[in-house]
Amino acid sequence: MRSLSLFAVALLGLSACQSAERATDRAAEGAEDAADATVDVARGAADAVEDAAGAVFGTVADVFDDDDSAYAAAVVRPTSAAGASAQGTVSFRESDGGLMVAISLSGLRPGPHAIHIHQNAACGPGEDGTPGGAAGGHWDPLSSMDHGAPTEELDDKHLGDLGNFEAEADGTADMVVAISPFPTAEYNVAEHAVMIHEGRDDLESDPGGDAGTRVGCGVIEARMP
Ligand SMILES: [Cu+2]
Asked: For residue 166, which phi and psi values (nearest 5 degrees)?
C-alpha cells in the first residue's frame, strides 16, 4: 500500500501540471487525494489489476458497470514509451450503421491525438522494442490496405481507423466519437487493442497516419453474456 500511495502522489502531481515547481506545491494536496484513492482501491481489491510498477487501474468490468450499453471496452494504460502517461477507459457501443466510441482518458499532451484499433490483443513492446509494438498494425479485417478517415467508405480505410480526438489543457479527454460506416454486426472490436498516439492522425498516410509514438494502449474485451 505504501508504494501504491507514493505512486499515486507522483501520478497526481505529474498529471496536475507540467511544471516541477507547481508539482511540488501540489504534493500535499496529492497526498490527501492518494489517501482517499487508497480506500477506494482497498474496496475494489478483489478485482483490481496491479501492474509491475504497483499501479492499480480499474477493470473492464468497472467500465461495463459505468456504461451499460457498451458491448466491448478496454482499460488504457501507458505504453513503455518514455514519459507515456495516457490512461483511462475506452468503450464501444453500436449505433445505426456505425460505432460509438466513448473516450475517458487522462495523462495526455493537450491537443489532438490519433486513436486506432490495432490488430493484436497485446500492448507490450514489439520485437524491436517499439512501445506498443506488440499490438501490430491497424485492424484491417476487410483488407482495404488503405489508411483513412473514420468517415470514409469501408474500402478506403482500415476498420481500426478511428481518427482523432482532442485532449483538454489539463490532459484529459471525455467524449463520444461516432464512426460511420462501421459494420458492427459482422466485425467485433473485441480481442484487438485500442491505441492512443502522441500525435495527430493525418487521415491519409499509409500505414498509420503518421501519428507518432504509441503512448497508451488497452486490450479490448467483449462484455460477457
Ligand atoms: Cu495506431
From this structure: -110, 125
On whether both 142 and 103 belong to a single domain, the answer is yes
d(CA 201, ligand 1 centre) in Å: 9
Distance (angstroms) between ligand 1 centre and the Cα of 212 equals 8
Give just the sign of the alpha carbon dihedral 76, 78, 79, 81.
positive
Q: How far is ligand 1, taken at its centre, from the CA of residue 81, in Å?
A: 14
Contacts of 219 (CB under 8 A, 6+ apart): 74, 121, 122, 123, 191, 192, 193
Structural domain of 207: 58-222
Q: How far is the CA of 65 from the centre of ligand 1 (A)?
A: 27
Q: How far apart are CA 148 and CA 166, in angstroms?
A: 18
The reply to whether 33 and 115 lie within a common domain is no
pTM: 0.77
Dump pLDDT digits (tens) for 87-110: 999 999 998 889 999 999 999 999
Ligand 1 center to 15 CA (angstroms): 23
